[in-house]
Design a protein that fits this description.
Number of strands: 4
Strand content: 15-25%
Largest sheet: 4 strands, antiparallel
Number of helices: 8
Radius of gyration: 15 Å
CATH class: Alpha Beta
Length: 154
């Protein structure tokens, strides 16, 4: 069943010029980009987005980092997209992320770890609504979808 998930390419991805390299991995996997925009995050959005971390001593560092440059927020779609993306990005601590994952190939930090991705389908729904209006998400058919999925998977 097709799902949508949120990916945020963080300030380190933007400032290191890695946007194209990271995006191409998701496209080459067969996921479909259905929403994308560059934005500047603010404290209000970050407090909602990282609500589970706002009482941690490192939260001010997260806010400082995430507001240090624009970020690229994206909505991706595909069969089991949430789990596929989580596998592709690797574990949070980039030093422990497997080679071949986004974090394993491009990052060396826990906090400066290139990308945020929704952790489950429920989080994806909430996060997509946080960052996108409904008219900013699109539906279309990739030209190669019949080569990516079997008929009963679409």
């Amino acid at each position: 069943m097709s799902e949508r998930t949120l990916i945020i390419l963080k300030p380190d991805t933007v400032t290191r010029g890695l946007l194209g390299k990271v995006i191409s991995r998701f496209e080459e996997k067969g996921l479909k980009l259905v929403g994308c925009k560059m934005i500047e995050l603010n404290n209000e959005v970050l407090e909602k987005h990282y609500d589970h971390l706002k009482d941690k001593p490192f939260f001010p560092s997260i806010v400082s980092y995430m507001t240090s440059s624009p970020v690229l927020v994206q909505a991706w779609e595909g069969v089991e997209a949430v789990d596929v993306v989580r596998l592709m990005i690797g574990v949070t601590n980039s030093r422990q992320a497997q080679p071949g994952t986004v974090r394993g190939d491009f990052a060396m930090s826990i906090g400066r770890n290139i990308v945020h991705a929704s952790e489950d389908i429920d989080a994806a729904k909430v996060e997509l609504e946080r960052f996108f209006d409904q008219n900013e998400l699109y539906s279309y058919t990739r030209a190669d979808e019949d080569k990516i999925y079997e008929d009963d998977e679409k």
